[in-house]
Amino acid sequence: MSNGKIKIGVLGASGYTGADLVRLAVPHPNMEISILTANTHAGKKVAEVFPHLGHVDLPDMTKVEDADWGDVDAIFCGLPHGTTQDITRSLVETHGDVKVIDMSADFRLRNMDTYQEWYGIKHRAPGLQGSAVYGLTEFYRDDIRGANLVACPGCYPTAVLMALLPVVSAGLVDPADLIIDAKSGVSGAGRAAKEATLFCETGEGMSPYAIGKHRHAPEIEQEISKAAGNDIVVNFTPHLIPMSRGELCTCYVRLEGKATASDLRAALAERYAGEPFVRVLNEGVLPATQHVRGSNFVLIGVFEDRVSGRAIIISTLDNLVKGSAGQAVQNFNLIFGLDETTGLGQMPLFP
Amino acid sequence: MSNGKIKIGVLGASGYTGADLVRLAVPHPNMEISILTANTHAGKKVAEVFPHLGHVDLPDMTKVEDADWGDVDAIFCGLPHGTTQDITRSLVETHGDVKVIDMSADFRLRNMDTYQEWYGIKHRAPGLQGSAVYGLTEFYRDDIRGANLVACPGCYPTAVLMALLPVVSAGLVDPADLIIDAKSGVSGAGRAAKEATLFCETGEGMSPYAIGKHRHAPEIEQEISKAAGNDIVVNFTPHLIPMSRGELCTCYVRLEGKATASDLRAALAERYAGEPFVRVLNEGVLPATQHVRGSNFVLIGVFEDRVSGRAIIISTLDNLVKGSAGQAVQNFNLIFGLDETTGLGQMPLFP
Amino acid sequence: MSNGKIKIGVLGASGYTGADLVRLAVPHPNMEISILTANTHAGKKVAEVFPHLGHVDLPDMTKVEDADWGDVDAIFCGLPHGTTQDITRSLVETHGDVKVIDMSADFRLRNMDTYQEWYGIKHRAPGLQGSAVYGLTEFYRDDIRGANLVACPGCYPTAVLMALLPVVSAGLVDPADLIIDAKSGVSGAGRAAKEATLFCETGEGMSPYAIGKHRHAPEIEQEISKAAGNDIVVNFTPHLIPMSRGELCTCYVRLEGKATASDLRAALAERYAGEPFVRVLNEGVLPATQHVRGSNFVLIGVFEDRVSGRAIIISTLDNLVKGSAGQAVQNFNLIFGLDETTGLGQMPLFP
Amino acid sequence: MSNGKIKIGVLGASGYTGADLVRLAVPHPNMEISILTANTHAGKKVAEVFPHLGHVDLPDMTKVEDADWGDVDAIFCGLPHGTTQDITRSLVETHGDVKVIDMSADFRLRNMDTYQEWYGIKHRAPGLQGSAVYGLTEFYRDDIRGANLVACPGCYPTAVLMALLPVVSAGLVDPADLIIDAKSGVSGAGRAAKEATLFCETGEGMSPYAIGKHRHAPEIEQEISKAAGNDIVVNFTPHLIPMSRGELCTCYVRLEGKATASDLRAALAERYAGEPFVRVLNEGVLPATQHVRGSNFVLIGVFEDRVSGRAIIISTLDNLVKGSAGQAVQNFNLIFGLDETTGLGQMPLFP
Question: What is the ipTM for the molecules in this complex?
Answer without folding.
Answer: 0.97
